[in-house]
Structures are given as structure tokens and as C-alpha cells.
UniProtKB/TrEMBL annotation:
One Pfam family cited in the UniProt record for this chain: Raco_middle
Protein name: DUF4445 domain-containing protein
Boundaries of every RACo C-terminal domain copy: 216-470
Family matches, as InterPro entries: Corrinoid_activation_enz, Raco-like_middle, Raco-like_middle_sf, RACo_C
Domain RACo-like middle region: 51-212
Length: 474
């Protein structure tokens, strides 16, 4: 997707033509289509302006992309927090909750459908269309999200061998699901690949064209349910790893989503901590990209060792650390902590020892999964031609910081490419192409699945991957 065309007409994220912003004022996740993608011709008559929606159900965030199907143009993108988060930050928690009774399963389904309807209502209020104009939708998500969206019992996904109740694809009418569209609108739920590798990864494959790439390519959809794909000359292998919600700001002492007031960039230079805050507002917390930056900088400054331990103030002083930097080290209720921002209110923004452990668990799960896939394909990082970072959060990660904390294989920065919300792009491609919708099941079956929980080497590789690299990446 290196030279993809922005829907706004430009060639980069800052083309200025889309002007799509979310409630925080940040640019929304702009939707790109691969240059070689050709949508199907549609036999729409004169005066007909049919609309379509591509939904991407993430564990943490739900995104809706609204299209004019006749003109094949993106009209708007709306994102909301997944309302199921109230019942658990990860997929296993939600499976457990929804499996306790049929009422709970229907409640979880209603939460997502209501979320869809709220986004449609917001779109209609802004653009003054009629809901009958919506004639088609595509839906992608991890396997658990697909089950919960359809009200299907997902309990089998929480126990070995982690088989889904269905693979798909599934076709429904909007009237069957209660979605605010034309009653006869088609809702295409794209097929799952395996127990915890869902249609969102199929979307990534559509958008990235990994099946056609030569050489070894790695794609990582960074999120609460981290999904990884390795491709070698048309052979595809995938796994899912429970990275957890740390990179989304959850489980972090002062973590938050990427919204106004969130620290998104951190630099430590000459004993001074420099931060960048979304919208230039007063800092109130830290999001995932800021968290990764902070840990990378703490490692370089000697504040954090390779085992993930924050040094004490006394040890920092004894090592000759800058006095102002050492002064930021103190004891807190969660162990040693490092002060990022001093606040007059006394509510300083800090990184705690527990925060570090949460990141170690998350990045260890991702890197451990990468190692296992490479073992299964008899390859190693030295053979990598490219690493593709997918997901809304993946686009904000600083490459150097991700390498520094050992979240990615040790490659040169120029081999890492951001591909944005590729799952959403794939959903859009399927929305615009009947041919692609028909091919979806076949392409999903081509992917070899590796179940990490059942792999004999995963626990060892996971534990090793929790350590931070002793040396700076190449």
C-alpha cells in the first residue's frame, strides 16, 4: 500500500482534502484504497444515490465508513468506543460474560447494533440523507466480535481447541438485525479465518495485497486482540495474541485513549522531559504512542533496565544521572514511578512500575507470536523485506520507539510501513466489489492458522520477549 491514493485525492495523510476529524479535533483514520483496486460496476439508475457502510468492529473501537456507492467516494468516517467494553476489556472477558445466559448474549449483540445505529444517526443528522438510501453494508472484526454481533454463542472460543461456532461468510438483511438502513439492505459479514483470527485480518490481506508480495512480509494489526500475519511468496500464516488493552491506554495508571489532553509523544534530552499533547492542551494522561515513546526514552536514559525495573532515585544519583532527571524518580502506591509531568494540583502524571509490566506483557505477546510464526515458516527476521503496521493505533507508533522496546523484529526503520486501518480498508473494498465478497471465503481458507496457546514453544518465547533489548536496534 505504499503509493495508495487518499480518498480525498491526495497521496498522503496530510493532503488536506478529506478534512475528516473526530470529536477530539484530530484527523480521522482516513481511508485509502490500493492503487490497483478496481471496484465492480454497479447498475444504478439515474437519480439514484445509494449509500453503503463498511463497519470495523474492534475490541476497543468501532469504526463506520460511509460510502456513496454510485460515485465510489467516501463521505464520512465515524468512530466510537465499543460499548461492550463495560463488560470486559478483552475478548475472553466478554465471551465469559455473554456465555452465562442467553439474555447476556442478546445484550452484547444489542450493544453493538445500537452503536451502529448511533453512528448512522450521527451521519444522517450531519449529511441529511435518508436511512432508506443505505442498501449495503460489510462487517469485519475479530472472531469474537463477529459472534457477538450476530448473537451467536462464543463460548467455544474460550476453550481448546478454540473452534468458532461459524466461519462464514454470513449474509443478513438489515431488518433481521435491527440496523437503521433500508429494510432490505444486505449486511455482509466477512468470513473468519480461525478461532481468534477474524475477518479483520482478511481485510488486512485485501488492503495490503500480501498474497501477491514477493519475499518475506510481516503484518501486525496492533490492538487489544493483536493479530499477526506472515507471508512468503503467496504462502500465508496467521496467529492471534492477547496483547491486552495496554496500548489503548487501559490498565495503565493514567492511561487514556488518544484524545484531547493525552500525551502522544515523549523525548528525554539533557535531563529534560519534552512532551507533545494532542491539540496542545494541558496534559491529563497518556495514550499508547506516548507510552511506547516514554518507555523507549526511559531505557535510553538508564531510568529503566532491560528487565523492566525502574531504578530508584538513590541508584540514579549514584550512577551519575542528571539531578533533575533523578528527582523525577520516587516511590508510589504501585512501586517505583517516574514523573512525566509535574502538576501544580499535585496530581502529577507518572509512569508506574505496574505500567511497565503491562507493556511488557503486551509487547511480549506480540513479539512471541512473531517468533512462533517465523519458526513455523522456517524463516528469521534477517529475511524480512517489510513490516506492515496496521490498526488505528499502529499508525501512531514511533518506529524507533517500537524497535527500542523490542516490540518488533530488529530491522532497519525504512523496512517498517504504516498502513493505517487496513481492516477497515478491506471492509471498504469488499463493500465496493461483489467479486471480492465472493472470493472472501476462498481467501480465508488459504491462511494457515497457528494456535499459540497450543504451541509448545510459545510460553518460552513469550517470557523471553518480555525483556527489553539490551542494545539499541540497528
Amino acid at each position: 500500500m505504499k503509493n495508495n491514493t487518499c480518498i480525498g485525492g491526495g497521496k498522503c495523510e496530510e493532503c488536506g482534502k478529506c478534512n475528516l476529524k473526530d470529536s477530539t479535533g484530530r484527523k480521522k483514520n482516513l481511508t485509502y484504497l490500493p492503487d490497483d483496486f478496481v471496484p465492480d460496476a454497479e447498475p444504478f439508475g439515474e437519480g439514484v444515490q445509494p449509500l453503503g457502510i463498511a463497519f470495523d468492529i474492534g475490541t476497543t473501537t468501532v469504526v463506520a465508513m460511509f460510502w456513496d456507492l454510485k460515485e465510489r467516494t467516501l463521505i464520512d468516517t465515524i468512530a466510537k468506543t465499543n460499548p461492550q467494553s463495560t463488560y470486559g476489556a478483552d475478548v475472553i472477558s466478554r465471551i465469559t460474560y455473554s456465555s452465562e445466559s442467553e439474555d447476556r448474549r442478546h445484550l452484547m449483540q444489542a450493544k453493538i447494533i445500537n452503536c451502529f445505529n448511533e453512528m448512522i444517526e450521527e451521519f444522517l443528522s450531519i449529511h441529511k440523507w435518508k436511512e432508506d438510501s443505505f442498501i449495503r453494508a460489510t462487517v469485519v472484526g475479530n472472531t469474537t466480535m463477529s459472534h457477538l454481533f450476530l448473537g451467536v454463542d462464543a463460548s467455544s472460543l474460550a476453550r481448546a481447541p478454540f473452534e468458532p461456532a461459524f466461519y462464514g461468510p454470513v449474509l443478513k438483511r438489515s431488518s433481521e438485525l435491527g440496523i437503521r438502513m433500508n429494510p432490505d439492505a444486505e449486511i455482509h459479514i466477512l468470513p473468519n479465518i480461525a478461532g481468534h483470527v477474524g475477518s479483520d485480518i482478511l481485510g488486512v490481506l485485501f488492503a495490503s495485497g500480501m498474497r501477491r508480495r514477493k519475499g518475506l512480509t510481516l503484518a501486525i494489526d496492533v490492538g487489544t486482540n493483536g493479530e499477526i500475519v506472515l507471508a512468503l511468496n503467496g504462502r500465508l500464516m496467521a496467529c492471534s495474541t492477547a496483547a491486552g488493552p495496554a496500548f489503548e491506554g487501559a490498565c495503565i495508571h493514567q492511561g487514556m485513549r488518544a484524545a484531547k489532553g493525552s500525551i502522544e509523544r515523549v523525548k528525554i534530552e539533557n535531563g529534560e522531559v519534552k512532551i507533545q499533547v494532542i491539540e496542545g492542551a494541558a496534559p491529563i494522561g497518556i495514550c499508547g504512542s506516548g507510552l511506547i515513546d516514554t518507555i523507549a526514552q526511559m531505557l535510553d536514559a538508564g531510568i529503566l533496565n532491560y528487565k523492566g525495573n525502574i531504578v530508584t532515585k538513590e541508584a540514579a544519583v549514584a550512577s551519575g544521572m542528571d539531578a533533575d532527571l533523578a528527582e523525577r524518580l520516587r516511590k508510589g502506591i504501585h512501586g517505583n514511578e517516574f514523573v512525566l509531568v509535574w502538576q501544580d494540583s499535585g496530581k502529577d502524571i507518572v509512569i508506574t512500575q505496574k505500567d511497565i509490566r503491562e507493556v511488557q506483557l503486551a509487547k511480549g505477546a506480540i513479539y512471541g507470536g512473531i517468533v512462533i510464526l517465523m519458526q513455523c515458516m522456517n524463516t528469521d527476521p534477517s529475511q524480512l523485506e517489510e513490516i506492515l503496521l496496521a490498526g488505528a493505533f499502529g499508525s501512531y507508533i514511533d518506529k524507533k520507539s517500537a524497535l527500542r522496546i523490542g516490540m518488533l523484529p530488529n530491522v532497519r526503520e525504512e523496512k517498517i510501513t504504516y498502513i493505517g486501518n487496513a481492516a477497515g480498508v478491506g471492509a471498504c473494498m469488499a463493500l465496493l466489489s461483489e467479486n471480492l465478497r465472493e472470493q472472501a471465503a476462498e481467501q480465508a481458507q488459504e491462511v494457515e492458522h497457528v494456535e499459540l496457546a497450543l504451541h509448545p514453544n510459545f510460553e518460552k518465547e513469550y517470557l523471553n520477549a518480555m525483556y527489553f533489548p539490551r542494545q539499541y536496534p540497528v
